[in-house]
Each structure stands twice: as structure tokens, then as C-alpha cells.
Amino acid sequence: MYNSGQLNKRVQVMERTRISDGVGGYEDALTPKFTVWANIHPLTGREYWSNQQTEAQVSHRIVIRYRPDINQSYVISYNGKIFDIQYFLNVEEGNRFIELHTLERRM
């Protein structure tokens, strides 16, 4: 289904963290975890509409090599854009690739 040659975008995986503001409060921040090669596929209008009817809201499918440490608290940063991971799938349960179903965060 996928091959390594399709992973042609360098993305940064980041984790949401809370950092003390020094006066008793906290602010949310993104902390870099690791950088990987990925394939980013924006959903077409039909895919997007169909997706909205049945699943969590998703705007892009991002494929990376399999990593057992991926979780939904991470976000993907690419080219000044932030993508929140809605859910992810181990492609064909093969431990080779993970499809991250994401929603682009509007700034």
C-alpha cells in the first residue's frame, strides 16, 4: 500500500505540554519530540464530506514509518502548519507504517 519513497516531507512530531509561567499559572506549549519523514495527503472534498459523516473531524492523512510511541497527545508540525492527531491506524497491522488522521489547526 505504501512505500518508503512516498515519505517525502520532513515533519516534526511535537507534544503538548504545560509550562509554568513563573507566577503560579501555566501556559500550553509544544515541545519537539522527534523528526520523521512523512507523506501528507489533504482529503479531497468528497473524502472530507464522507469522513465528516462517519468519523472524527479530519482534514489530512499523514503517513509515517511505524513507531510504537505515537499517541494522540502529539501534534504534527509541517511548513508552519500544525495538525492535531484525531486517531491513527497501524496500516494492515504490519508495524511498517502508521496513518495519522489529523485536523489542521486554524491559527
Spell out the key features of this protein.
mainly beta; 107 residues; elongated; six-stranded antiparallel beta barrel; Thrombin, subunit H; 1 helix
Description:
It is a single chain. With 107 residues, the chain is mainly beta. The chain has one domain: Beta Barrel (Thrombin, subunit H). The chain has one helix and six strands. The chain has one helix spanning 45-54; strands at residues 9-20, 26-42, 60-65, 74-78, 81-90, 97-104. Strands 1-2-3-6-5-4 form a six-stranded antiparallel beta barrel. Strand 5 (81-90) and strand 6 (97-104) form a beta hairpin. The model has no long low-confidence stretch (mean pLDDT 88).
Structural class: mainly beta
The residue fraction in helices comes out at under 10%
- How far apart the termini lie comes to 33 Å
Structure summary, number of beta strands:
6
- CATH hierarchy class name: Mainly Beta
Briefly characterize the structure.
9% of the residues lie in helices and 54% in strands.
Furnish the topology, listing elements before pairings.
Elements: E1 9-20, E2 26-42, H1 45-54, E3 60-65, E4 74-78, E5 81-90, E6 97-104
Antiparallel strand pairs: 1-2, 1-4, 2-3, 3-6, 4-5, 5-6
